[in-house]
């Protein structure tokens, strides 16, 4: 799979930046979430991260019916994802997921809280979507963070060409690496792709000596029980730390809001 031919541009759209996270690597961290992913996990809790382009969302339950969005909308033939409605909406019912930052801008935002995080062993994390679809941009941003003494982690599902890992290796301290299951047929059923490339990349990455933590979301009806135990045994045999992430349904309201806003006209 090639990043450019898969339609992924060199600079990602970022759909969220979170500060003070305790779920995205060690310590307290600032996290940037990039849009675009080569997998299509049926349980995805960041549905706004799947498509590599800006997307409107409409949270109907928050709408106060003020009409401001309709007044500013420049389009009569379907949404063009310009984001004007989100700018004027007083209740947060209208949102646009996805905006671009230069590497300098993003590094500045992620490093802003670094002085507080360093004492707690934290730093900055790139996540998504799949942050590893944008190796040049990630390397540039991570390099700027390293220059400021910030610890850098990349949260990845590993479904990218291995060259993408090689490009960022000098600037990433830790990989949070998802292994959803080991059975390739089950993996394809749950994510749309088998896991051969993911496991192959992991074996290569281990040989670099980089810190790696394997993470597995526990999904009811998918990898509970024996399948999860197989992943545990796989990690134990390789001396890899393994974390199990609890299942939650936080993505459902965002999925409904994306559907309610409809697909934008490109
Ligand atoms: S994002 Fe879409 S709905 Fe909102 S103002 Fe722009 S065109 Fe209209
Ligand atoms: S601007 Fe926001 S609150 Fe007002 S009608 Fe539009 S979606 Fe509803």
Report the bound ligands by name, code or SMILES.
Answer: iron/sulfur cluster
Termini, distance in Å?
Answer: 24 Å
Task: Give the biggest beta sheet.
Answer: 7 strands, mixed
User: Oligomeric state of the chains?
Assistant: single chain
| Side-by-side strand order of the widest sheet | 1-2-5-6-7-8-9
CATH topology of the largest domain: TIM Barrel
CATH superfamily of the largest domain: Aldolase class I
Strand count = 9
What is the CATH first-level class name of the largest domain? Alpha Beta
The structural domain count equals 2
What is the CATH-assigned architecture of the largest domain?
A: Alpha-Beta Barrel
Tell me the strand percentage band.
15-25%
Helical content band: 25-40%
User: Any idea what the shape is?
Assistant: globular
Radius of gyration: 19 Å
């Amino acid at each position: 799979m090639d990043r450019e031919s898969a339609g992924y541009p060199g600079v990602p759209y970022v759909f969220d930046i979170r500060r003070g996270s305790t779920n995205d690597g060690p310590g307290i961290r600032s996290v940037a979430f990039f849009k675009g992913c080569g997998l299509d996990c049926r349980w995805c809790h960041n549905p706004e991260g799947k498509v590599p382009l800006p997307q409107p969302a409409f949270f109907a339950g928050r709408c106060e019916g003020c009409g401001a969005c309709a007044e500013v909308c420049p389009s009569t033939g379907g949404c063009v994802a310009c984001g004007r409605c989100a700018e004027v909406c007083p209740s947060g019912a209208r949102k646009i997921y996805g905006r671009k930052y230069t590497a300098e801008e993003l590094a500045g935002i992620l490093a802003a809280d670094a002085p507080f995080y360093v004492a707690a062993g934290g730093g900055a994390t790139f996540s998504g979507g799949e942050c590893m679809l944008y190796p040049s941009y990630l390397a540039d941003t991570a390099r700027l963070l390293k220059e400021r003494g910030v610890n850098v982690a990349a949260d990845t599902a590993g479904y990218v060409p291995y060259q993408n890992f090689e490009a960022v290796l000098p600037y990433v301290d830790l990989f949070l690496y998802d292994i959803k299951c080991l059975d390739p047929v089950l993996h394809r059923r749950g994510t749309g792709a088998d896991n051969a490339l993911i496991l192959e990349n992991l074996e290569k990455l281990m040989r670099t000596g980089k810190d790696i933590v394997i993470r597995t979301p526990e999904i009811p009806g998918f990898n509970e029980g024996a399948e999860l135990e197989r992943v545990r045994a796989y990690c134990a045999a390789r001396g890899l730390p393994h974390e199990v992430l609890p299942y939650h349904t936080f993505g459902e309201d965002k999925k409904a809001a994306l559907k309610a806003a409809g697909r934008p006209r490109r």
